[in-house]
Amino acid sequence: MSSNPTGAPIGAYRSGGAPGFGDAIRSLLALLLIEIRRSQGIWLLPLMIGPVWLLNAFRTDERVILWSRMSVLTLETYVIIGPLTAGLAAWMVDRARRRQTTGMIEAVPRAPLQRDVVTLGAATCWGLIAYGVMACWFLGRGVLFATWDNPDLAFVLLGAVTVAAHAALGFLAGRLFPGRFTPLFAAALTYAIPIVTETIESRNGFSRFWLVSPLGVSEFNEPNVAVKLPETYVGESLLWVAGVLGVLWMTIALLRSRYPVWWIGLAGSAVVALVGLNPLLHYVSPTMPGSVSFIPELPAVTSVAFEPVCTSGNAVQVCVHPAHEARLDDTGERLNRLLAPVAGLPGVPSKLEQHTSFGLQVMPDHAFFGFGDGSIAFAAVESVFPPEGRNGTSASQQVILRWLGEQAGLTYPFSTPDPGIDAAVDRFGLLRPEEQRAWLETNWDALRTGDLILEDLP
User: Fold this and answer.
1) Which of 71, 167, 222, 273 suits a disulfide with 155, CB 3.0-4.6 Å?
2) Taking the domains of the chain in order of start, what are their residue ranges?
3) What pLDDT, in 10s, does the model give residues 81-135?
4) How far is C-alpha 375 from the chain's CA centre?
5) Is the Cβ–Cβ distance between 369 and 375 less than 8 Å?
6) Where are the alpha helices (DSSP H) in 177-305?
7) CB neighbours of 265 closer than 8 A, spacing ≥ 6?
């Protein structure tokens, strides 16, 4: 039986005698694979993937898949996968003390830092495996069904680095604060970070810390097929998260040894993090095309030219962005049903175009609309009864709008609950189509200006 006085793992030496760098790496990778297989990550994997899939499987319209949306959704999966990875890392680092046993990795005669690398690497790998599965799912949908745009892998990379940072933070928490509940606290803390920044932003309408979280960066880049942002802040966020990851790694190393290289790495990582953080704390919201900015230095969003796809109906021509062509037939049919009874009357548009930027716009001969009953109802209000010279819709206008929606099978959501309006809608709906049209032609001008009251309706 041969002896191994150095205590190095069998196979760590080349045939020549002294261990080489390649041999050490191969030995470390072998231990990493063993640790991955024996850790609890395999049991946590369904909890990482399952909720993410359930939350996202039905969030997008199957008829319209945008590459930009798939890239952003891939990044956002870190919100669930990251905290679970942090909890797993905190659990694994304190496993031996908690069980009062010496694990396999602790029993191997290696430097403590090398054992930390193996444990942290295993936890990180399980998080990245879960993230990779969801990335393949989202990007696979883009390959098969995307109708517009191109993949932006910077968002995908940002999510992967963020998951790795969660693992490092959980590992550091388990190392500094060993305890039974540390994994739960690590998972809860990392889950709360994006929620807190999101809450601050939603309450204040503006938060300097909004983009500090990668979730804020994804929301800032909400896909819009008609405009291009002057700055996405994805590169800056990647620098910020990568710098934080480096700081965490170097701190873990310094807890084991005080070599100068770790201090240099810590300083360099902190500089990278600050370089990325600075623009995230001083971001500006760009102005939309055609809007007036009272701050001259604000950048403007660039409009993306496109040729709309149109369909003609008996009442109105409907046009959509090419990315949404799959919605054209259904939307065109609903809008034509909505406006057919008033088609040809003064001011009623003969053309409706998809609303592809923020804010509704009304033009002399056509109006803009979005998808969904609420957006189509807005189109009806803005196109049939323009807002100039009035404060909201009058009671008589609400009657006609509700009647238009009901006869088209749509719900008009902006009517004030009122028994008088309900009764007037029922009375008007009982008239024959020719009687309805005759009354509208006679009273249209007064109806549009809001001069009619409920008693003036038939």
Assistant:
1) 71
2) 21-281, 309-456
3) 999 999 999 998 877 555 554 555 555 545 788 888 888 999 999 999 999 999 9
4) 21
5) yes
6) 182-204, 214-220, 234-254, 260-281
7) 246, 249, 250, 253
